[in-house]
Write a structure and sequence with these properties.
alpha+beta; globular; 253 residues
C-alpha cells in the first residue's frame, strides 16, 4: 500500500534526511587509504547519535536475510554492489567505496548513498561513479506530480547505458518504515506504472555495474551482494519527496 505524506510528515522526514546527509559527508571525508571499514562505521554511528537520531540499518531483519544486519552503515568496496558489512578490512589506494546510510527521527526514516574514491582511482572508476550519480539526478528530475513511476525508471536506465544495472534491485517507498511500497525499479518504460502524486516519498538508487552485466551473487555473510564477474560497482541514492513544485531531495546535508 502506497502512503502519501502530509507536510508535518515531510518535515520529520527532512529532519531524518538531514542527519543522513551530514553523516554521509562526515564518513566520506574520513575515507583514505589505511582506514578500516569498522572505523568508518564507528564514525557513522557517532554522528547519528550526536544528532539524536537512531540508525535505520542496525538490527534490521527482513525475511530474506538469515540474520539481523549487524552495523550502522552499509560499506561496499569495489565489486560489492550493496549491503557490504563493515569489518576489519582496510581500504587501499585505488579502491572505490559505496557508503549507504539510514537514520530515524521521530519515527520517520531517511536513506541515501554515495560512492567515493579511495586515494587516486583510475579513469574508468571515475566515469562509473560520474554516470551513476547522473543516473540518480535523471531519475529525480522525473519525480513530478502527474508523471508515471516508469518515467523515473526509464530515466535511470537510459542514463546508465552502457553499464549494467543489478537485476531486481532498485529503490523503494519510505516513511515510518525504511522500505515501503512502491518498488522503484532502475529499468522501465516511460509512461507506464503508478501515477506519481504529491506527497509520495521514494528512495531512488541506481546501482551500476562496470561490465554491463546485470548478474549478482550473495556472499557467505548472507547480506553482501557482489557482481558475479568481479567487476566494480557504484551506488548513489537520495530520499525524494514529490511536491507541487517538483521533486525535493530530503537527504541533502
Amino acid at each position: 500500500m502506497v502512503t502519501l505524506k502530509n507536510q508535518a510528515e515531510l518535515d520529520r522526514m527532512r529532519a531524518a534526511g538531514r542527519v543522513v546527509g551530514i553523516t554521509l559527508r562526515r564518513v566520506a571525508d574520513a575515507v583514505e587509504p589505511g582506514i578500516s571499514l569498522a572505523e568508518l562505521d564507528a564514525i557513522g554511528a557517532s554522528c547519528i547519535k550526536e544528532h539524536d537520531a537512531l540508525p535505520s540499518f542496525l538490527d534490521y531483519h527482513p525475511r530474506s536475510a538469515p540474520t539481523p544486519y549487524p552495523a550502522v552503515l552499509c560499506l561496499s568496496v569495489n565489486d560489492a554492489v550493496v549491503h557490504g558489512i563493515p569489518g576489519e578490512r582496510v581500504l587501499k589506494d585505488g579502491d572505490i567505496l559505496s557508503i549507504d546510510c539510514g537514520a530515524i527521527v521521530d519515527g520517520y526514516h531517511g536513506d541515501a548513498a554515495v560512492t567515493v574514491p579511495v586515494g587516486r582511482v583510475d579513469d574508468a572508476a571515475e566515469r562509473l561513479m560520474k554516470i551513476t550519480s547522473e543516473a540518480l539526478t535523471a531519475g529525480i528530475a522525473k519525480a513530478v506530480p502527474g508523471g508515471r513511476l516508469g518515467d523515473v525508471s526509464h530515466a535511470v536506465e537510459t542514463t546508465a547505458r552502457p553499464y549494467g544495472l543489478l537485476d531486481g534491485c532498485g529503490g523503494h517507498g519510505i516513511g515510518t518504515a525504511m522500505h515501503e511500497d512502491p518498488h522503484v525499479a532502475n529499468t522501465g518504460r516511460a509512461g507506464r506504472g503508478m501515477r506519481i502524486r504529491e506527497g509520495l516519498v521514494i528512495a531512488i538508487e541506481p546501482m551500476l555495474i562496470e561490465s554491463g552485466s546485470d548478474e549478482g551473487r550473495t556472499l557467505a555473510d548472507g547480506w553482501t551482494i557482489a557482481t558475479a564477474d568481479g567487476s566494480r560497482a557504484a551506488h548513489f541514492e537520495h530520499t525524494v519527496a514529490v511536491t507541487e513544485d517538483g521533486p525535493k531531495i530530503l537527504t541533502e546535508p
